[in-house]
Design a protein that fits this description.
The protein has five helices and twelve strands. It is of the alpha+beta class. Strands 7-8-9-10-11-1-2-3-4-5-6-12 form a twelve-stranded mixed sheet. The chain is globular. It has a single domain, classed as outer membrane lipoprotein receptor (LolB), chain A, CATH 2.50.20. Helix content is 24%, strand content 36%.
């Protein structure tokens, strides 16, 4: 009997060990402090054209133009980050050229370094034929954090909302599993990395498609250096003066420049 009991105990040990092995999963880092995120920016070009022509003549011409232009324009960006900084820039061959007569939107291939220790931002932005190197403080936004969640690139993200530039409603999804309070373009200030952005008025979304939990080299995070040195206020003043004849379209151009 004693031998049988020992045998049963031995079998139970084996079964328990197998069950633990089957349930064992590869541990996922609870917190990520450095890495690279790939973002996909998607713009509804047809809706942009509709918004630009709202209230104007030429709807028939615009309908014809849309037949020759893909509805969506998709571009790819990369964001490198560590605990203190982030660098957002186009991926190699990440920008698709627009098929519209007026070409791409202004500031469509920005390079942006955010420094959270220094509360500073350096942005290299090409606006039509001019390139600006904009040095300023980080943008401050009043975020409203909600109870809605969404899975993005494998991370559980929480929804937040804000208004930028007085009239652009922004929906952002951030994860506190990536501690750097950054995101695509100039978005920052949430308790974690922004992995998704929706801007209905600009018909544009940004969503992370891949997160690499490593940073090959700290040299991947650098300050852009090309362009005419300005602050955000100075660039806005320059653009308003040079685009007076654009009338109602001036604000729309500035939205694209300062997102």
């Amino acid at each position: 009997m004693k031998t049988i009991n020992l045998y049963i105990a031995f079998l139970l040990c084996i079964v328990t060990s197998i069950a633990r092995a089957d349930n064992k999963e590869t541990p996922i880092p609870a917190v990520t402090f450095k890495g690279k995120i790939t973002f996909e920016r998607k713009t509804n070009v047809h809706k942009q054209l509709d918004d630009m022509m709202k209230g104007n003549q030429g709807g028939g011409m615009m309908d014809q133009m849309k037949k020759n232009i893909p509805k969506y324009k998709t571009d790819v960006f990369e964001l490198f980050f560590n605990e203190k900084q982030s660098l957002y820039k186009p991926a190699p061959n990440g920008i698709t050229e627009s098929k519209m007569m007026m070409g791409n939107s202004p500031a469509d291939r920005n390079i942006i370094l955010n420094d959270f220790e220094k509360d500073s931002s350096i942005s290299e932005k090409k606006v039509f034929e001019k390139t600006y190197l904009i040095k300023d403080s980080l943008r401050k936004s009043e975020w409203k954090i909600t109870e809605e969640f969404r899975k993005i690139a494998g991370f559980n993200c929480r929804r937040a909302e804000t208004i930028i530039m007085d009239s652009i409603y922004v929906i952002a999804f951030y994860t506190d599993a990536i501690m750097t309070p950054s995101g695509p373009e100039g978005f920052n200030g949430l308790p974690g990395m922004v992995l998704g952005v929706v801007m209905p008025r600009l018909n544009t979304t940004y969503f992370a498609t891949k997160v690499d939990n490593y940073l090959p080299s700290e040299k991947d995070i650098y300050a852009p250096s090309k362009g005419d040195k300005k602050t955000n206020v100075q660039v806005e003043k320059t653009m308003r003066e040079s685009m007076k004849q654009w009338g109602q379209y001036v604000d729309r151009m500035l939205w694209y420049i300062f997102i």
